[in-house]
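Supplementary Methods, section 5.1.

A reviewer requested that the exact input to the structure prediction be made available. We therefore reproduce it here, unchanged from the version used in the analyses.
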Amino acid sequence: MSEILVVEDEINLGLTLKDYLESKGFSTSHAKTCHEAREKFDSSVNVVLMDIGLPDGDGIQLAQELRSKRKNFILLFLSAQNDPETKFQGLEMGAEDFITKPFDLRELTLRLEKARMTHKVLSDHQEEIQLGSLTIKFDSYQVVDANGKVLNLGQKECGILQLLYKNINRVVSRDQIIDEIWGEDSFPSNRTVDNYIVKLRKWIETDNSGLLEIKSVRGVGYQLIYKE
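The structure derived from this sequence is encoded token-by-token as follows.
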């Protein structure tokens, strides 16, 4: 049983990551293919470090498959593909981070710790709330509408929504969102934050009560409005 699953087809890199993470106290397993990853992904795994170019499939598609089985794990992509579209696809499907190869192992440790802290903050907060006709399930990263349709959130979308909810009817700045969701030493662009808000708005728009709105405050940030 392992806490971290490294999915990496480059054997030397995979074993280096495994040895390094175990030296930091993490129980770690290594999978070289999609097939091996499916076999090793069990309830003990709470972090997946995923390469994209795998010999028997695509890492992003594999991550989506694993997410469909279980939502509550941390996902970081490790890839030599650094084009904006690939990064966007990875983050859009709910990854906590996208790390471009080659990378420093110390950087990986810092990013992993930040993702773990964000995950812990989410786990420590209220697990389920009712907003208008929507049920927000923070523990399973889901929004359920009045008809019972389930919409799946990524961890960052869930974190942003929870932050807006904690400050309901108050403006939350982009800087505050970045500090609390990404970490103070991370520098996602304003467009990255905006893209997550666009996705959240699509989910909020499924509310048929007319009570919910995510409002942009020009030059400042965002406000979750609940018209009780």
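The chain has a mean pLDDT of 86. These observations are discussed further in the main text.
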